[in-house]
Design goal:
Layout: E1 24-26, E2 31-33, H1 49-53, H2 69-81
Antiparallel strand pairs: 1-2
Length: 82
Amino acid sequence: MALMITDECINCDVCEPECPNGAISPGEEIYVIDPNLCTECVGHYDEPQCQQVCPVDCIPLDPGHRETHDELMEKYRIITAA
């Protein structure tokens, strides 16, 4: 699954630079995650880095974008090959 940022986001700016795929960007009110670029850090790290640095724990799995570990790894390969 891709991750998502909930309304609890305080716009602290710590998640965006931690994303190795550039999937996090400022939205209209809070940061947003592009599900087409989010691999939950599969291929880069053992755990999603944005979740590790988020001080308010507002980055859960996005139930609207379910993906297996293999699908996330394939997405990682496509993203890093570009």
